[in-house]
Design a protein that fits this description.
YcjX-like; YcjX family protein; binds guanosine-5'-diphosphate; 2 domains; 467 residues; 17 helices; globular; three-stranded antiparallel beta sheet; 10 strands; alpha/beta; 14% strand; seven-stranded mixed beta sheet; binds magnesium ion
């Protein structure tokens, strides 16, 4: 990578460097870790002479202006670094595997050195000064979508929230999973005297219930930190839960009063703090949506994920009356919703996946509040393509070739069709989700990962910053 010599030009170059904060979010298993790993690896491996580079389609690369990329380690970071090396080892190891799930927030910075286009004033001025090349400092922040599901907590109070959560806990699959926790909290009157042991047991049972819901593929779960506590594991701010039968004001010293106070602490110290410390600094956001697993999980899980998404979407409404109206800082100017794992469906269905996701977001985004707040895009992508497209010899139908965990080698497979509309017609649905495994392909390590539409993602998110 060519950088200007030390001295005044270097200082000027640094001064002109742009820093962009890119948020990567999505509910757990949506594909954040694989996405960030692939993005970084493919940028680091960018090779202008490679005809079949996985970056083909990324304008800055195609125009021959991407000079090189470099990872930067921030010695003073207060947030864990994204485990890039570890994830790479898993995917490109001798028996390739998907990376281990990560929880919590992490960051990584990659600097892109590129040649300016001559367009624009900065470009012209910089060129005249002999600074034809520039640096984009891309700071990637990977954080759980579950934390965004918490935003609506700011617009409610403990009593209203409790009533809604108790009501929800009595519906569908949740009714079974909540039995033990509900029996425990119903056993004591909320105006009984607060007792720390009882509080600890109640909140532990509630956390167990949320985890059981998560295992049953339900996604609309609050508070998000009960599932992904990160640095708050064991912290006393998580020692509360919804309470049944709250009537009237909380008596001082009661369970009701203690839980209400914890709830307020959670609103302030957890939810608001996250938005202020991390979210407020983001310029761009990609939200990964695993619509395919949700389809496979059936109607209840799919609807539940849609509700979680509706809660997540509220974070991207910047209107004055939004819950984030208080938020100081930058504002996200571009949001890309990416339907992940598009390599799980046949070629002809990828557009359907994109349209289904677009329809879903449109239905969830009441009054187009997001569209009017930020530039919004939808795309179906695969960060690391684990299947190949082929056709059946007999019928000519499109099928996939891939390897599931139980297979010793690749097989031709037909995943079934993707519904065209939202909500899907469940009676007609024949789609099946398989957990396709990455290939043992040595070229991946050196040439980058094959993807579906990752270059377009780069164009949409940072294309304008590389001019
Ligand atoms: N075939 C395929 N599977 C993927 C892709 N991205 C993610 N996955 C699958 O989704 C799982 C969860 O991905 P991960 O990135 O760990 O999700 P996270 O929890 O959002 O960080 C992985 O273990 C893979 O099984 C992709 O691009 N293609
Ligand atoms: Mg992860």
């Amino acid at each position: 990578m060519r950088t200007p010599e030390a001295g005044p030009m270097k200082a000027l170059d640094d001064l002109l460097a742009r820093r962009i904060y890119l948020g990567v979010t999505g509910l757990s298993r949506a594909g954040k870790t694989v996405f960030v790993t692939s993005l970084i690896h493919n940028l680091l491996r960018a090779d202008a002479s490679a005809e079949d580079s996985p970056l083909r389609g990324f304008d800055c690369f195609d125009e021959g202006r991407l000079i090189g990329a470099m990872l930067r380690h921030d010695a003073n970071a207060t947030v864990p670094e994204f485990p890039y090396r570890k994830a790479m080892q898993a995917i490109t190891g001798e028996s390739p595997q998907w990376p281990e799930p990560t929880r919590g927030i992490s960051r990584i910075r990659i600097d892109l050195r590129y040649r300016r286009t001559d367009a624009g004033l900065t470009g012209q001025a910089a060129t005249r000064l002999g600074l034809r090349d520039a640096t984009l400092q891309l700071e990637i922040v990977d954080y759980p979508g579950e934390w965004l599901v918490d935003l609506p907590l700011l617009g409610t109070d403990f009593e209203t929230w409790s009533a809604a959560m108790i009501e929800q806990a009595r519906q569908g699959t949740r009714a079974d999973l909540s039995r033990e926790w509900l029996a425990f909290v119903q056993d004591r009157k909320p105006d009984a005297e607060h007792d720390e042991d009882w509080a600890e047991q109640a909140s532990a049972l509630y956390a167990d219930y949320l985890r059981a819901c998560s295992e049953a593929r339900l996604r609309n779960l609050q508070p998000g930190r009960f599932l992904h506590p990160a640095d708050l594991r064991g912290a006393s701010v998580l020692r509360f839960c919804p309470l049944p039968d709250l009537r009237g004001k909380a008596a001082p010293g009661s369970i009701h009063a203690a839980f209400r106070d914890k709830f307020r602490d959670y609103q302030e110290k957890v939810v608001r703090t996250f938005y202020r410390q991390h979210f407020a600094g983001l310029d761009r956001q990609i939200v990964l949506v695993d619509a395919l697993s949700a389809l496979n999980d059936g109607q209840e899980a799919f609807d539940d994920q849609s509700e979680a998404l509706a809660a997540i979407l509220q974070s991207f409404r910047h209107g004055r009356n939004s819950l984030l109206g208080w938020l100081m800082g930058r504002r996200i100017s571009k949001v890309l919703f990416a339907a992940t794992k598009a390599d799980h469906v046949i070629r002809g269905d990828r557009l359907h996946l994109e349209n289904l996701t677009r329809r879903m977001l449109h239905v969830l985004d009441e009054n187009n509040a997001i569209k009017t707040s930020a530039e919004t895009h939808v795309q179906a992508i695969a960060s690391v393509r684990a299947t190949r497209d082929t056709r059946r010899a007999d019928t000519g139908r499109e099928i996939l070739v891939g390897r599931r965990p139980e297979d010793s080698h690749e097989l031709p497979l037909e995943p079934g069709a993707i519904p065209l509309d939202f909500p899907p017609d469940w009676a007609a649905l024949d789609y099946r989700f398989w957990d396709f495994q990455p290939h043992p392909d040595p070229s991946w390590k050196h040439s980058g990962f094959p993807t579906l539409r990752l270059p377009e993602v780069l164009n949409l998110l940072i294309g304008d910053d590389l001019t």
